[in-house]
Amino acid sequence: MLYHFSALTGGQAGSMDQIDGGSLRDMDRAFCIVGSAFSVYFLDADSGVAESSPDVISPDSNAGDKRWIKCTM
């Protein structure tokens, strides 16, 4: 699945962390445009690392070990 977001965190509509982790699958992709910054992320279903925005974003609900990981370009 490919997602588009306009915010990384905050839990509001349009933010990366507001998607329920239960509906996310390993290697889902996302892109986020905040201001003039464009970022690409993939979902690692068994990462479990601590959230550290903007590099690692954890879903607010049902995250388990799922994390959005920022791709380096």
Tell me the count of domains: 1
Strand fraction equals 25-35%
Class per helix and strand makeup = mainly beta
In N-to-C order, the SSE pattern is EEEEE
Number of strands: 5
What characteristic shape results from the CA principal axes?
globular
Largest sheet: 5 strands, mixed
Distance between the termini: 21 Å
The low-confidence runs, each spanning 5 or more residues with pLDDT under 50, are none
Whole-number mean pLDDT: 96
Give the strand line-up of the largest sheet.
Answer: 1-2-3-5-4
Helix content range: under 10%
Helix count, DSSP H or I runs of 4 or more residues: 0
From the alpha-carbon coordinates, what is the Rg to the nearest angstrom? 11 Å
What would you say this structure looks like, in words?
It contains no helices and 5 strands. The model has no long low-confidence stretch (mean pLDDT 96). Strands 1-2-3-5-4 form a 5-stranded mixed β-sheet, with no helix packed on it. The two termini are 21 Å apart. With 73 residues, the protein is mainly β. It has one domain.
Q: What is this entry, summarized?
A:
The protein is mainly β and 73 residues long.
Properties at a glance:
single chain, 73 residues, mainly beta, five-stranded mixed β-sheet, 5 strands, 33% strand
List the helices and strands and how they pair.
Blueprint: E1 2-5, E2 29-34, E3 37-44, E4 56-57, E5 67-70
